[in-house]
Amino acid sequence: MEFEITDEQQLMMDTVSELVSENFGPEYWREKERRGEFPDEYWDALAKDGWLGLMLPEEYGGQGMEALDLALVIESICAAGAGAAGSWYYLLTPVFGGLSIAKHGTDEQKEKYLPGICEGEVEFCMGLTEPDAGTNTFAMETTAERDGDEFVINGQKMWTSGADRADAMMLVTRTKPLDEVEYRSEGISLFLVDLPADGIEVETIPKIGYNYSNTCQVFLDDVRVSEDQLLGTLHGGWEELHDTINIERIVNAAGAVGTGELAIETAVGYANEREVFDQPIGSHQGIQFPLAKLKAELETARTLNHKAAWQYDNNQGEYVQNMNMAKYCATESAFQAADQAMQTHGGVGYSVEYDVERWWRELRLLRIAPVTQQMALNYISQHVLGLSKSY
Question: The domain 124-235: what is its CATH number?
Fold first, then answer.
């Protein structure tokens, strides 16, 4: 197995790192969160330099690259100063919208949405989670019922980030009731819904992190969509959704690794400068060892995530289990890295101006979303170890 980064990949990493460190470092995100503002300048810069279309087809303005390239770029963005926000907002449009359409859209859907996504002119969100069907997606109650050549959608979605400003939503619905299917995964369909739309109401949810944009609950009341807005195959959306959520795990693991790296680097810088009892606090093993341990854990998670991305790119069957293990390891060690960075800073680590508390809050979410650590362990237990299903 090759572990060497190509010259092209290294150039990508260096270029995007320079872009972020010079223009969108911690102080930028600190101020954006204070104001509750979306990072428009960051988004526009990514679009201008072609980063939003990294895995999208060249004929629609993308770069046509692979999952490993995306993981390297996301790591670099987060480590250069953007923190976990650098990966989170990438998911909403280039992944939830762009990759879903690139994989399963019609030619008309690709032509309609993909150029705008690459150019930063179209923003997406994904309506998946529901109040009574979080992890248990098959129990979703949002339905799309056929009415002639249209579908009528009713239901409610929760934790739909960016729904208040998105131009379109990739909406996950049930088109066949549970009691009419042989397998619970059957009867799920995906739709592309332009926003705003009649029958859709959006309300924001106050939260503790990622306050550069809003996360929302979405109410759907007799929303009408045409057959042309069906993404992929009718009733076969669950398998097609996997192409989105699998890349989501790679992006989240890469974002966690990059943000954990940023937290450790910040803690090391402070430990080398801060003197107590006439010597730097970083000279003490009580400071050194926890950071060194977490550095080792992050490097392990990074390697596993690169392996999963490489397997995905090369259609190697074990990539799903490695994605789940990488997501678990990366988010766990990155959160602990942010926590240790706060501890290293002492009292000032609790203050906003030192930024580590913000990364701590951002990384805490990644232990819950897009899948909880417990569900990742369930997958590993069942599909890697061969144990009985436990839920």
Answer: 2.40.110.10
